[in-house]
Design goal:
By secondary structure, the chain is α+β, with helices and mostly antiparallel strands. 25% of the residues lie in helices and 21% in strands. It contains 4 helices and 7 strands, in the order ααβββαββββα. It is globular and about 35 Å long. The N terminus is likely disordered.
């Protein structure tokens, strides 16, 4: 997976938030766009400190950010987001963090920041082509940069 989070941290001429970039091609609600922009601003500022968890993708320390009263662990360098159990449900409005987890899955290259085991990639919601990483031991779900916006689009 290619990480594009660094693109919008660049110069003022090329800086775009994930929500603005996606809103040209796909429609997000104003609330979803604002949530993504707020999340990006908090991650840049590192407002809520650093939780003691490494990023599943790059291994660097994540920073905390809060949206809809949910504190998320976010990675500044790669743009990934870690969701503890139930947090993705709150943001997506679905009754499960990974609604299609019963479908075929495959081993992920990412490790769970809690138990350090390899995670499993699951189709988030059939028939869409969105793979999310889920800890087999139930510790949480990891989304790469841009995938939260895709989850919003599917809700």
């Amino acid at each position: 997976r290619h990480c594009r989070y660094k693109e919008h941290l660049g110069s003022a001429q090329t800086r775009r938030t994930p929500a603005k970039r996606l809103s040209r091609n796909r429609r997000l609600t104003e609330e979803q766009t604002q949530l993504l922009n707020d999340l990006t601003a908090q991650v840049r500022a590192g407002q809520l400190g650093t939780p003691p968890r490494p990023c599943p993708a790059c291994g660097l320390a994540m920073v905390a950010a809060e949206i809809r009263e949910v504190t998320l662990d976010c990675c500044r360098p790669c743009g990934g987001i870690w969701f503890d159990p139930g947090e993705l449900c709150v943001l997506s409005g679905r009754n499960q963090d990974v609604p299609s987890r019963h479908l075929q899955s495959r081993r992920s290259r990412n490790t769970c920041p809690i138990c350090q085991t390899l995670m499993t990639e699951h189709v988030y919601l059939a028939p869409y082509n969105l793979l999310v990483d889920r800890c087999a031991n139930g510790h949480g779900v990891y989304l790469d940069e841009g995938e939260l916006a895709r989850v919003f689009k599917l809700t």
